[in-house]
Amino acid sequence: KTRIINCGCRDGEHPTQGLLDLNSFIEAFTDLYINGKLTIALIGDLSASRTIHSILIGFKTLNFPIKIILVGPDKENIPDEFVQKLSGSQVILEKTTDLLWAATQAQGFYFTRIRGNLRDALPTELSEKYDQSYGITEKFLNLAPTHTRFFHPLPANKEFNTRLDLSDNRFSHH
Q: What is the predicted pLDDT for the residue at 154?
């Protein structure tokens, strides 16, 4: 048999990065994950993020109870047809546009960049003040408990200020 690993397609999924991310979440929050008490917030350009799509499919495949908060603009959140793929799993999804509310709800936060290269034109909701609405700000950091962790699949754009990133040990890049 020949085994093939899909490293990602243009506008679908990115399973290799998804596996790395799943491993990072489980390693960082083993007890919460095993006990079904883990909440992860997936933040940003949700409709175009191949890594987020792969993370969701990965959690469905692992079949442990987990709550996922999807944080992004209403028009750019995970499409309903993708949500249908998760039906029958132990993945509980909650959608919101309010990152500051999510800051108090989750243990892990996964930030994505705007995927402009996958679109003909950027929606207004993503292009204007993306970093303030769906990035890490000082206000967000002050709301998020000290035991939380922030994850980001590089490269980054405007999702966080480098000064904040370098000064806070809750950041993890992979």
A: 58
